[in-house]
Amino acid sequence: MVYILLLLSAFAAGVINAIAGGGSFFTFPALVFTGVPPIAANATSTVALVPGSFASAFTYRHDIGRLQGFGLKTWLVVSLVGGFCGAILLVKTPETTFVRLIPWLLLFATVVFAFGKTLSFWLRERLRVGPKTLLVVLFLVTTYGGYFGGGMSIMTLALLGLWGLTDLHAMNGAKTLLGGSLNVMAVIVFVLARQVYWKDASIMMAASIAGGLAGGLIAKRIPPARLRWIVIGAGCLMTAYFFWRG
To answer: Where are the domains of the chain?
Structure first.
């Protein structure tokens, strides 16, 4: 039963990460429910979802190819550095402190996910910021992504919008590629810190790859609004649960 829960949560996360983001709302709680300590659960969830991210990015490869001239290589470098810094912060955080932070991190991620599009539109209407400022903000977002990651997809899409991108498929592809890249650095840190439950991670990797491929294919065929509401609902439930548990 435990492994079925992990498989289903990882497949759902792969699909949802490809379409709307927010897959960690499913994998992180599933691992905690099965008895994995919170910091190790966050690390294992990250490891499990990395292959699905790149599988999804592969389905967007032609869309990503349209981003020449927007500085994608620079974004990737910043994302790698941010992911590394965030992962270092996580493994240096005492377990008791992280446990107290979990409900607040989930609440923040849920609010960002729920209102991210509105906030993105509001920011684009009112802010005119230069590329250096955007790179600094991208570093902060990816550092958060390496530390916890919930809601990071929406924040990344908002940043890409501020950069002037309007092609949603290209933005989704870039978001997925950046998220996968920063998590590669996070994975290196988590592996060296011995925070990964490899048996659980291996089971979830296969499911996340299948979900990432499926999500990348269906993202262009269905409106993501329905899945977004599922993610928001899951985020609210998980936030309430961890506040109650705390």
So the answer is: 2-245
